């Protein structure tokens, strides 16, 4: 159960059968590991031009982070994470929707509208570059980076965190993207966990 008492069922819950397939290495390891992260708690917060600092500090406090990320960056706090997905918008993960005064900004619960897929493994970056026109080398997209892009015309958000990538995509397109990703991942050796 989430903090709000509602259990969020992933759009991929019946389609993520654990196992390995494709070009698995001789030692049994896979180049790409995919995982459907269930129980997503995600909200969007937007500030107004003259209230960005105030709203940023308020939501950083909500996730217990020591700073507010700039555009294209994320910070992790004790209670959740704060992703700057656009110049005037943040996404908060892991915490309930904050109370923001209307004169300072606005909020939107995205928890039921998105699916979160974790991508890791030694060939994760190369695999993702089959789908995304982003330079994912460490010097261009280091840990804590966030980018909006598209996979087959589906708007997605990619976050590089803790040695892996988290991909947020619209729930209604999750199965379509998942099927394409699993097909391509087999050439690297795929493990679904």
Characterise this structure:
- The two termini are 21 Å apart.
- The model has no long low-confidence stretch (mean pLDDT 94).
- This protein is an alpha+beta fold and 193 residues long.
- The strands form 2 sheets. A 7-stranded mixed beta sheet has the order 1-12-2-8-11-10-9.
- The protein contains 3 helices and 12 strands; from the N terminus they run E-E-E-H-E-E-E-E-E-H-E-E-E-H-E.
Query: What is the rounded Rg?
Result: 17 Å
In percent terms, what proportion of residues is strand?
A: 25-35%
Tell me the span between the first and last alpha carbons: 21 Å
User: Would you state the CATH class of the largest domain?
Assistant: Alpha Beta
Average of per-residue pLDDT values: 94
The largest sheet, given as strand count, sense and whether it forms a barrel, is:
7 strands, mixed
> Regions with pLDDT < 50 over 5+ consecutive residues?
none
H/E series: EEEHEEEEEHEEEHE
Under CATH, the topology of the largest domain can be stated as Gyrase A, domain 2
Features:
2 domains, alpha+beta, 5-stranded antiparallel beta sheet, 193 residues, 7-stranded mixed beta sheet
Compact summary:
The protein has two domains: 102 residues, Gyrase A, domain 2 (2-Layer Sandwich); 68 residues. The protein has 193 residues and is of the alpha+beta class.
């Amino acid at each position: 159960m989430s903090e709000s008492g509602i259990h969020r069922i992933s759009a991929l819950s019946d389609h993520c059968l654990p196992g390995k397939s494709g070009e698995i290495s001789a030692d049994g390891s896979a180049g790409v590991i995919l995982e459907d992260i269930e129980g997503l708690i995600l909200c969007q917060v937007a500030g107004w031009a003259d209230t960005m600092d105030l709203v940023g500090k308020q939501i950083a406090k909500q996730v217990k982070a020591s700073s507010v990320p700039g555009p294209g960056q994320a910070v992790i706090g004790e209670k959740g994470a704060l992703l700057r997905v656009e110049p005037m918008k943040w996404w908060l993960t892991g915490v309930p929707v904050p109370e923001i005064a209307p004169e300072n900004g606005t909020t939107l619960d995205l928890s039921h509208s998105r699916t979160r897929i974790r991508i890791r493994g030694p060939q994760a970056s190369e695999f993702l570059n089959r789908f995304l026109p982003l330079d994912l080398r460490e010097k261009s997209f280091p840990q804590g980076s966030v980018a909006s892009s598209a996979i087959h015309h589906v708007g997605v958000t990619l976050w590089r965190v803790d040695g892996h990538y988290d991909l947020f995509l619209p729930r209604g397109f999750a199965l379509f993207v998942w099927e394409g990703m699993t097909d391509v991942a087999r050439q690297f050796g795929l493990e679904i966990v």
